[in-house]
Each structure stands twice: as C-alpha cells, then as structure tokens.
Amino acid sequence: MGGKLSADERAARLSELNGWQSVAGRDAIERSLEFADFNEAFGFMTRVAIKAQEMDHHPEWFNVYNVVRITLSSHDVNGVTQRDVELARFIDSIANRA
Ligand code: H2B
C-alpha cells in the first residue's frame, strides 16, 4: 500500500482537490489558507492535528496570524502518496467551515 503516485495520478488527484499545487523542486503538494483571525486559523490547525494523529500522517505547516500554509509529502517515500491526498481532502472538507 501507499507508494508514490505517478505524475499522471498526482495530476488527476490534484485536479479534484481545492487550491493545491505541486511544490517546485520537490515531490510534495501545498495549499495556503486564510482565516478571519488567529483564533480561526488555530482552531482549523487543531482539527487537522487531531486528524493527522489519527492517520499517523503529519503536515509540514507554517502559520502567521490568520494564514496557514501547508505542505504535504510522505516522508517515508519522499513523495506524494494516497495518504497525502486523503489528508488534503480532509483539509479541504473543513476549510470552508472554518
Ligand atoms: N507523516 C508524513 N507526512 N510522512 C511520514 O512518512 C510519516 C508521517 N511517518 N508521520 C510517520 C509519522 C512515522 O514517522 C511514524 C513512526 O509512523
């Protein structure tokens, strides 16, 4: 289970996601999200953290006040896998409710 997605598979999955793009020079995907304020941003991050812990699959992320920038990559294979797509889908599903 769970090897790196091929370039075609990755492009197909990216097109189904919301606002994700490939990272230049690295096999990873990223999305930036903007919230009303820090409280909403951190509430969102808390929900993602709980999901990441359940999945045992963790984001790389950067937060300044109301902005959260997330990079997803599977460190064990150094590339994008179905686990990253699953976490990205979860992030998309809660982003609009934040
Ligand atoms: N997160 C990500 N993004 N990639 C991994 O390979 C990974 C992880 N491995 N979270 C997990 C934790 C591993 O280190 C533990 C030991 O299961």
UniProtKB/TrEMBL annotation:
Reactions accelerated catalytically: (4aS,6R)-4a-hydroxy-L-erythro-5,6,7,8-tetrahydrobiopterin = (6R)-L-erythro-6,7-dihydrobiopterin + H2O
CDD domains assigned: PCD_DCoH_subfamily_b
Stated name of the protein: Putative pterin-4-alpha-carbinolamine dehydratase
Coiled coil: none
Domain of life: Bacteria
Family: Belongs to the pterin-4-alpha-carbinolamine dehydratase family.
Alphabetical list of PANTHER family matching this protein: PTERIN-4-ALPHA-CARBINOLAMINE DEHYDRATASE
Keyword tags: Lyase
NCBIfam families on file: PRK00823.1-2, PRK00823.1-3, PRK00823.1-5
One of the record's GO molecular function terms: 4-alpha-hydroxytetrahydrobiopterin dehydratase activity
Enzyme Commission identifier(s): 4.2.1.96
InterPro entries: PCD_sf, Pterin_deHydtase
